[in-house]
């Protein structure tokens, strides 16, 4: 597939050939153009069309482990993998008669198929911090039709829920693609395990987002937008929320509840932009907007706390803490709580006079009137 990709098989534990024209590679490893492992597979089956001057018809990957990686400069290893190898790097054509016409780029015309795969997606921040998300039990196919590489729905298990994604790679040089991801029923407790919380958070996450990269419109960098909802939850033990309780002088050990949470977001370059979010529950409801790095660093988020549905009965102040900001919340006054630092180690401050975005104001009015 030199005409289609720079990735190549570099390590093989063993090779078998049968009379059906299938070559089986055992314990194969494939590296991208920068010499970093892209995927490994317990068994790779190459189905050939004919044994003399064969064409590659189909590739089946069994128990593959795929490593997708976004570097701190915004580039993805996927771009390097699916960028055609330079002509001078390709093998010269063999001499002699050819019984089958050559494939334009060597991509298997019946596609590449995954069975029981594991996909790791890693983002690297400018500070070098890495964050990885993993999907297991992945099944799916990559088919090339009319010059477009189509990723047929990839289904897998995602932190106690399910993930389904689809994509189209229209061009590999320059790299131009779009994809969609749908997450249903992911366990918030599993998602937050890396934070090593004293008490687990609860909830089920549903999310959908779409991404597009186009040299003409996005300078080859992805732009994504989406929405997420959390139900049946308790998120108060997340560091960002504990810090809000602390600055308002609230006892974190109260009987708390999260009725619903909604986030609308966009992603540009290396920033995760939260355009609108609301957390409805007790003792507080939180409304806000802001942004942070994809790694969870460099927070710049503002929350406006409002009294929860059940009112003063849920408010348990800590003895000896000044209550003015808490009293303002009870009276319905806007108390902007601004978060900086990182998601797992936030810094928090109340900034009276902070200009609250108009969409957030309208959201507060809408949700508070229900």
Amount of helix = 10-25%
Q: What structural class is derived from the secondary structure elements?
A: mainly beta
What does the oligomeric state look like here?
A: single chain
What portion of residues belong to β-strands? over 45%
pLDDT < 50 runs, ≥5 residues: 88-103
Q: Using DSSP, what is the number of strands?
A: 19
Radius of gyration: 25 Å
Count of helices? 6
Shape annotation: elongated
Largest sheet: 19 strands, mixed
The average pLDDT value, as a whole number, equals 80
Order of helices and strands: EEEEEEHEEEEEHEHEHEEEEHEEH
Termini separation: 59 Å
Describe the structure.
It is a single chain. The chain is mainly β and 370 residues long. The chain has a domain at 235-370. It has 6 helices and 19 strands. The chain has a 19-stranded mixed sheet that branches.
